[in-house]
Amino acid sequence: HRNVSYVGFMARTSLPLVVVVLLAPSILSGCATSRFDQLWEGGRYDEAIQEFEADRSLQTEENALFRAALAHAVPGTPTHHPERAEELLRRLIALHPGSARATDANRLLTLLAHIERLDQTVKDRDEAVRDLTSRVQELEERARIAELLLEHQTTRSELLHELKSRLERDLREAQDQLHALQEELRQLKEVDLKRSGSGGT
User: Fold this and answer.
1) Which of 62-76, 126-140, 154-168, 173-187 comes out lowest in average pLDDT?
2) Mean pLDDT of 117-141
3) Under a CB-based contact definition with an 8 Å cutoff, are residues 114 and 3 in contact?
4) CA neighbours closer than 13 Å in the CB half-sphere of residue 134
5) CA angle (97 as vertex; 94, 102 as ends), nearest 5
6) For residue 168, what is the enclosing H or E element?
7) Would you say residue 19 has pLDDT above 80?
8) Are 21 and 196 in contact (CB under 8 A)?
């Protein structure tokens, strides 16, 4: 439950506050030692990333790697790029396996994995809802056609009644499945919002 609340919390919180709450406070302490640090601490993350990519020495330094990964990890920012964030975090862990930043990097990788799984679950539910909505519309149309045939072809009334009943039964089943999926999707999003709200307080 705690990890799920982190998902919504991180997705809705500005980068400096995420760093304070989720990670070691020391990352924001001290004086900026490079232009990259100055840009990052000033909240100019797009410029900081440009500086990071242009300076090869920063790409092996653990604090710079971690800060660049954070800038890429947080949704809603111009620099959001989770795949690049994971790449930088794994590089940090490989280059500095025993450092405190490696521990933070592992925590952030776990969080990114939770976000990815949650996003995929929502996408899967949305696709299922779309498929069932299409199925319901198709069945409704077939039911309407059957009803029209019943009105104009009384000699085949018994067969058409049976067809109409079967179509209506299939329609009810499809509608029930659609409603169940829609409710599951609504609850999933509602739970995430509630947990993220509790995580931010």
Assistant:
1) 154-168
2) 85
3) yes
4) 5
5) 95
6) helix 157-200
7) no
8) no
Residue 115 has pLDDT above 80, yes or no: yes
Angle between helices 157-200 and 100-152 (to 10 degrees): 160
DSSP structure string for 88-150: HHHHHHHHSTTSHHHHHHHHHHHHHHHHHHHHHHHHHHHHHHHHHHHHHHHHHHHHHHHHHHH
- What values do phi and psi take at 76, rounded to 5? 85, 5
Can you read off the two tokens belonging to residue 106?
């592992």
User: What is the model's pLDDT at position 118?
Assistant: 84
pLDDT recorded at residue 105 = 93
**Tokens 């899967």 found at:** 124
At 96, which amino acid appears?
H
Roughly what angle, to the nearest 10 degrees, separates helices 157-200 and 2-12?
A: 80
Tally Cβ neighbours within 10 Å of residue 130.
12
Do residues 188 and 7 lie in contact, with contact meaning Cβ atoms separated by under 8 Å? no
Q: In the numeric block, which tokens belong to residue 138?
A: 């198709």
- Encoding tokens for residue 79? 């620099």
